[in-house]
## 1
Amino acid sequence: MMRPSHSSITATVLLLAITLIFSQQDHAAEAMSIQFRWKAELNSKNDRATSRETSQFHLRKSNILATQDSRQKLCQLYERMVTNYPTWLCKKNMTFGLFRPSIVKDDDATNLQLKLGRINMLTFGVPKLSAAPDGGISSCAIQIPVEGGLLSLPPDAENNDQGRLEFSLDAIPAEDDSILVKLTTKIDGNYRPSIGGSPPVPIYRKAMYRFTQSVVHAYVMWRFHRATASAMRELVSLY
């Protein structure tokens, strides 16, 4: 059975320690309250990890929501934020400035690197638009492929997919004339966390993943959802 390296486990615990420190800080400036839910799983049989984070918040009635062209500004803002997600992860108020984004030559992928030793934790591919949710007055969806890094096992022999991050926005009218915005983020596809090792994944490794790397991911996504809500409320306030 393939075992995750000690450096992988150490890096995951380091990320957990950093996020726990920041979780004690006051993030009220990022946004007003949002309803955030999170669910994660590491499949013991095929060592695939999945997660789903959802949030929703209201935008007040505004002229920006009056026409289809103006409503697209919400999607344009969201697409910019998702495209910049790897760089956003490296902000000092996220991880003490311990990480830096490094662009991979030739294919425009982005490495999330520890500054000390330049250890590559994850490699993100080029973001791309995907099928948007149905039914909203403003909807969009973006995928960011995972293409390697210390926290990801190589793809298996059956396919070359290492999983992906999925981001989607759906804005729908609410009864009080406001707009209800629903955000969904996911880990999907064939993402295999190195901390889990090869299948079958034992219970103790599932627990290690559940209480370290998956907690880090949920915390980061909570921050991203809040930052998105704050940016959209600021945009709406200009109209």
## 2
Amino acid sequence: MKLLSKASFGFLAVSFSCVVGAFQLPSGSDAPRSAATHVDRKDFLSTSASVITGAVLVNSQPANARGRATLEQAYDRYTPRIVEGGKFYKSELYAAISKSNWKAIQVAIAEPPKKSKEDRALQDGGIAKRAALAGGFSNARVLSAMDLYAATFSDSSVTAKTKAMKAEVETLKEVVDGMNKAAKIALGEESAGGGLFGIGSKKSSTSELSKQLQELYIKGGNAYNAYIFAANEGLPLQLNKLPFL
């Protein structure tokens, strides 16, 4: 298992040998540098403990699916979007967050626009045009694929494997919502309120929003890796295991 190459962002590498790195601001970052922007290794280990536990529990369960043919079809259909989403998460989204580029963060997680009158006039109903506008780590482009792929490992009853994978998807959805909330507040598009992940419960400075965003990024990275760990368990040999961040 390969840990994320950028040492400035630490992820929990979920495998038989767990490696944990500390979160630090990348060198040359435009984000503020202070003691408040560092997540201590001890705190990181504590908050990540539940991820390890969930992954280990999945490891003891058989990887049930509706049949090899169905699994292979779902693998071919959904995993390219999942893998590309992971690449985007640790590259473009990482760059936007490390620089507190709020507009770029919004674009990275943006959902496609609703169908317009102009779209209805197009042959495909504007599907291709709207899909192209979906962010590189949006629900429409990545998280929906993760959710649908997780469902492949269940049939008449929902398996522990599917439940574990879907739980990580829900965490990622909350992370994306939190990132979007922080970006809107930072850009003045939304006032403080709501308090998702502590964001917006009171008026925050830009530096405080940046710190919260970085914490969300680590939380999301852990959830993605835990999802991949669960997805790879019991996968048929002819299918390549999905890469971690």
